[in-house]
């Protein structure tokens, strides 16, 4: 038994070392940094930094920009998260249908935005959103709707970013849903059809229960992903008009690399760490209570 234990630790050692070097140590350093007033002056002379305890977190609680970023992030999560899951599930159901041909081709097409660089995507979507020459406003003109400044209007900037984020990332969850659908035994659908269940009833009573573990995983990871949303609002609007699309991660980036307040940025990272851990704990609890 001791020999097996030593062998197990020997095989686990490289992975544990990598996790410690690239996760545990950086997280610990970030939490320590959040307890200091580390700024641009301390970069040149680390001895200038002072230990301030929880002062950075207290300053965040009094910062209106921080709460705006929190509110925006909540909107991203509560609107973009469910929308992304719904679109992913819809695409997976279409690809899993028996009548669909060339499934591999469509899976590749739908997954392509996930692996496409955001800069390339942003160039295309900026033209789509252009207030004067954009395709969206061109189509809206056919139904008599005036052009909309999608990225310049505070009321429309967030929906525009959410639409981009959903389109950019839904392909990954779609593949997970497709894998989950393929694990549901076909005889369950046949039995339900024999009992007189229609398409909607088969979906509610066979597909949804069969996808319960997949729903849980996709929902939690998608919500965490929208909590960490950064690239889309940064590339498209740099925080948006009047901060309408400034997320928590974008706020953290601005504190750390625009204003060089590393201690404050680390405090925001600490808040995001707590949110991520809470999401992981919720997933673990739900997995335990799931029948």
Please give the structural blueprint:
Blueprint: H1 2-33, H2 40-44, H3 55-61, H4 64-96, H5 103-115, H6 118-128, H7 135-142, H8 154-182, H9 186-194, H10 199-210, H11 212-227, H12 231-237, H13 248-258, H14 262-289
Helix pairs in contact: 1-14, 3-14, 4-8, 4-11, 5-8, 6-12, 8-11, 8-12, 11-14, 13-14
CATH level-4 homologous superfamily = MetI-like
Q: How large, in whole angstroms, is the Cα Rg?
A: 23 Å
Helix content: over 70%
Percent of residues in beta strands: under 5%
The count of β-strands is 0
The overall pLDDT, averaged over residues, is 90
Q: List the uncertain runs.
A: none
Short description:
The chain is mainly α and 291 residues long. The protein is built from 14 helices and no strands.
Note down, in words, how this protein is organized.
The protein contains 14 helices and no strands. It is mainly alpha-helical and 291 residues long. It has helices at 2-33, 40-44, 55-61, 64-96, 103-115, 118-128, 135-142, 154-182, 186-194, 199-210, 212-227, 231-237, 248-258, 262-289. The mean pLDDT is 90. Helices cover 76% and strands 0% of the residues. It has one domain (64-289): Orthogonal Bundle (MetI-like fold), CATH 1.10.3720.10. Helix 1 (2-33) packs across helix 14 (262-289), helix 4 runs antiparallel to helix 11 and helix 8 runs antiparallel to helix 11.
């Amino acid at each position: 038994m001791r020999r097996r234990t030593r062998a197990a630790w020997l095989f686990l050692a490289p992975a544990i070392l990598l996790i410690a070097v690239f996760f545990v140590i950086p997280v610990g350093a970030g939490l320590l940094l959040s307890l200091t007033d580390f700024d641009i002056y301390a970069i040149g002379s680390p001895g200038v930094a002072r230990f301030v305890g929880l002062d950075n977190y207290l300053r965040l609680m009094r910062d209106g920009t921080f709460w705006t970023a929190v509110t925006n992030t909540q909107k991203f999560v509560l609107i973009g998260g469910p929308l992304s899951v719904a679109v992913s599930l819809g695409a997976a159901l279409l690809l899993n249908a028996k009548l669909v041909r060339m499934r591999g081709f469509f899976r590749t097409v739908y997954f392509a935005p996930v692996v496409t660089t955001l800069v390339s995507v942003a160039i295309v979507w900026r033209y789509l959103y252009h207030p004067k020459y954009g395709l969206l406003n061109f189509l809206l003109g056919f139904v008599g709707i005036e052009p909309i400044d999608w990225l310049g209007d505070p009321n429309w900037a967030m929906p525009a970013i959410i639409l981009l984020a959903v389109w950019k990332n839904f392909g990954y969850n779609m593949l997970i849903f497709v894998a989950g659908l393929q694990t549901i035994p076909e005889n369950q659908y046949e039995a339900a059809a024999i009992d007189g269940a229609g398409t909607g009833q088969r979906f509610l009573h066979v597909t949804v229960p069969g996808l319960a573990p997949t729903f849980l995983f996709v929902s939690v990871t998608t919500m965490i992903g929208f909590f960490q949303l950064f690239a889309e609002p940064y590339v498209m609007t740099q925080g948006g008009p009047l901060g309408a699309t400034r997320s928590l991660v974008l706020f953290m980036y601005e504190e750390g690399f625009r204003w060089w307040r590393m201690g404050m940025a680390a405090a925001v990272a600490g808040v995001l760490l707590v949110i991520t851990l809470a999401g992981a704990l919720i997933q673990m609890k739900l997995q335990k209570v799931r029948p």
